[in-house]
Design goal:
Radius of gyration: 26 Å
Helix content: 40-55%
Strand order of the largest sheet: 2-1-3-4
Number of helices: 24
Bound molecules: iron/sulfur cluster
Largest sheet: 4 strands, parallel
Amino acid sequence: MQAHDLNGVQGDALRPAQYKEQIHTRFTSAQRAHTTVLHAGLTYAHDVFVVAGMRGLGYRSEMLECPDNAALQIGKEFGNRGQCNPTYFTVGNVVKHLIHLRDEKGLSTKEIIENYLFVTAGACGPCRFGTYVTEYRKALRDAGFDGFRVLLFQQQGGLKQATGDASGLAINREFAFTLVRSMMAGDVLNLIGYRMRPYEVEPGSVDAALEKCRAILCEAMENRRSIVMALRRCRPVLDAVPLDRLRAKPVVSIIGEFWAMTTEGDGNYHLQRFLESEGAEVDVQGVTNWLLFMIWENKYDRLRRIGLRRDDGGKKGLEGKDAAKALRMLGFADRAVRVYFHLYAWALGLRGYHLPDLDQIARLAANHYDNNVRGGEGHMEVGKLVHFVEDRVNHMTVSVKPFGCMPSSGVSDGVQSLITTKYPEAIFLPIETTGDGQVNVQSRVQMMLFKARQRAREEYQDALHVANLTERDVRRRLALPHFASNFWRPRHAVAGAAANIVHAVARPRGLDRLRLWSPARWWRALTRPAAALRPEFGEE
Ligand code: SF4
């Protein structure tokens, strides 16, 4: 090429045009009636509730399957190189569904583009989460679905979100409220399921009860009825499941990157179910914790920026704004989330569950991981591990870090090794999920679980020894009406449920003793099947 070509008129003509991505977001209210809104990304319970809630708002809505290895392969085929695992799984999952509609359901590409769209949450990053939407569009284009609409709502964007010409998707108070209700209902149902399943007497009985509860809740969401009342209707279903809670099981908390620790499929090698099959009680992190973390981040940033107010004239800056009012609103949002969550938990019978104190988590992490560093779970992974050890929350912690994840890999490989040196009693296992390392990961989990299982058994034997009771004594006391409900939760003393039960039944004093004589408890006990009472009134 001649030099003058680069500088002169001829050069300008040769210069390639700036690439501009074609963004397809047109979704008008007139298109609502024939457009199916696809959704996916969380646990099965959350996804079915979001879909039911969207139907209640008047949308045609469908849920995608949990992303599997086939989705990962499709994501890798059509996505950019060097992405993190959750990007490949989630992007590939959407493309996989559209290929299914085209190749197996017989829809033409044109019909799919005109009658379907995908809605997802987004953020400005700072990790790859900020580029997910671009990845969706790129992969869809390359897979032959150019023009397929991907609509984004910013998870930190509040209600005043720009949705382009997507007036068909009303991001308003009702939409936000529906999402939050779905998240919380999904959380309380998942949490109670994970608490109960390891102790079920008949295999599959807890899952069957959860399925009935999901149907009750979906019906309430679709018909826009009270979720609290629906959760109350789920209680007898769950309370009827026979449990044996005196099995000394290790409690294993799963933390790590948000999607990888939340998904229930190949994305984390079915980690939750695998741990349960190996005899553990799994402690999962709810989506509500994430909502609280986002509120905390906002509060923290505002407090730091208040001093800069005069120089903070950006679009989202504090110049000329009432920062104190904004802080009050965030404080109110935090309390509202907690009140709602506990209302749902109370309605379902999820007792003694504590949402995290995020100031405490931040304080615990601050010496090891700067609270100003963002991306992924930020300092939360570090703060949670310290909290779990110091407050004896569990016997073991597994941190799931997806292959290619910038924030989570750095934390697990670097900072957490310092924490485990400082707290040698911690049983901590970071695992990397690549999609093809299942056997390796599961055998590492089994090795660590061996130690946790031993610790749970020792803790249980210690509790019996301190209480001077035999297991038979404890079982007899457990048949008392005070303890008979599946929802009764012993006060937290140690990590294991069985050991906590021993500590609790050994000292039914004070308020506990008064509760023992509560007429309502006695009435419930008397109306339970006779078999449930037999040990108390037995021959001994
Ligand atoms: S936290 Fe990690 S895995 Fe998650 S989006 Fe960011 S880079 Fe990817």
